[in-house]
Amino acid sequence: MKNEILGIHHITAIASDAKKNYNFYTGILGLRLIKKTVNFDDPHTYHFYYGDEKGSPGSILTFFPWEGIQAGRRGTKQVTEIGYSVPAGSLEFWQERFDQHNIIYNKPSVKFGERYLTFLDPDGLKFEMTEAKKTDTRPQWQTSEVDKLNAVHGFHHITITTNKMEDTAAVLTQIFGFKMTESEVNRFRFVTDAVEYAAIVDLVEAPGEAIGHVAGGSVHHVAFRVEDEESLMYFREKIVDFGLNITEKIDRNYFYSLYFREPGGVLFELATDNPGFTVDETLEELGTNLKLPVQYESIREEIEGILPNLN
User: Fold this and answer.
1) What is the spatial distance between Cα 18 and Cα 237, in angstroms, rounded to a whole number?
2) Distance (Å, rounded) from C-alpha 252 to C-alpha 231?
3) Which end of the chain is more exposed for a tag (fewer CB within 10 A), N or C?
4) Is the pLDDT reported for residue 2 higher than 90?
5) Short-list 58, 23, 64, CA closest to 214
6) How far, in Å, CA of 128 to CA of 86, rounded?
């Protein structure tokens, strides 16, 4: 697997209320909170990581819940949809559940031969639950209300909306090794065969659409997966040779990262599999403790006094 982009690693978005965010993703969607930490650049703000039992790459959705932040606006130069993979026949369960909890959603439709259900989180972040053509065998995190017949497996795809897709497509194909496999109207599907799941990026080309505004209910960035630091630096060199600016390697405690903005305007990250989320908590403990980067341990009491109470 060396020197391959292994699909989507994680997606990071912005929320306006930490408690509402936590209740929605763990309670209604039934995801596991796998890490409760703080924003490295703003330690008085949580950074939540949700996913499957282990926080496997391809299942990890993270949030910066900046209390009271203004609402964003979907448009071009953005990741505009997050696609989850769910079991065949589960969309009716999710419709009933969304009705019970007053969640905004659209009735199921079909795209690329797959049934999907669109819904919005409390901040208006747009999701699609997709019943994939190929059975998804990834283990699911189950709760008392969301069982194996209906629980989320992990990511199915992301959608990027762009005024002109040519340059973004070039990054996907020439650097990341994706291939365009099919299209419907102005939606173009790019897939990597390096992994089975979390392997799809859809580009929607909308020449006349306004540029979006990234704030509450918006995706901040999408991270693509690499195996280790050696592979990370291999792709750094490729991206520099492609003529794009990219950061130095950054230690995020649970993975190592590089960041760059692709030509269409979306912030991309590359993130490693190592060291993973059990580096500072056991598998059983994941998400139960407030974990701080070492540079903020000296002000733990101050941070704990400012962060919203989730209970």
Assistant:
1) 38
2) 16
3) C
4) no
5) 64
6) 10
For 306, the 3-state DSSP assignment is: helix
Answer whether 222's CB lies under 8 Å from 29's CB: no
Residue pLDDT, tens place only, 253-270: 999 999 999 999 999 999
Find out whether 68 and 141 touch, Cβ atoms under 8 Å.
no
Six-digit token string for 230:
């050696």
3-state SS class at 168: helix
Taking only the tens place, the pLDDT of each residue in 221-241 is: 999 999 999 999 999 999 999
What is the mean predicted confidence (pLDDT) over 186-204? 98
Q: What would the two tokens of residue 256 be?
A: 């190592």
pLDDT per residue as tens digits for the range 131-160: 999 999 999 999 999 999 999 999 999 999
In what order do the strands lie in the sheet containing 255-261? Answer: 32-39, 42-51, 60-65, 8-15, 219-226, 267-275, 255-261, 250-251
Output the pTM of the full model.
Answer: 0.97
3-state secondary structure of 198: coil
DSSP code at position 153: -
**Angstrom distance (rounded) from CA 311 to CA 304:** 14
Gap between the Cα atoms of 191 and 243, Å rounded: 23
Distance CA 7, CA 10 (A): 10
* Positions of E strands within the chain: 8-15, 32-39, 42-51, 60-65, 78-86, 109-111, 114-120, 126-131, 154-162, 179-184, 187-191, 200-205, 219-226, 250-251, 255-261, 267-275
Residue 57: name the closest of 234, 235, 277, 231 by CA: 277
Domains and CATH numbers, the chain: 8-306 (3.10.180.10)
- pLDDT band at residue 1 using 50, 70 and 90 as cut-offs: low
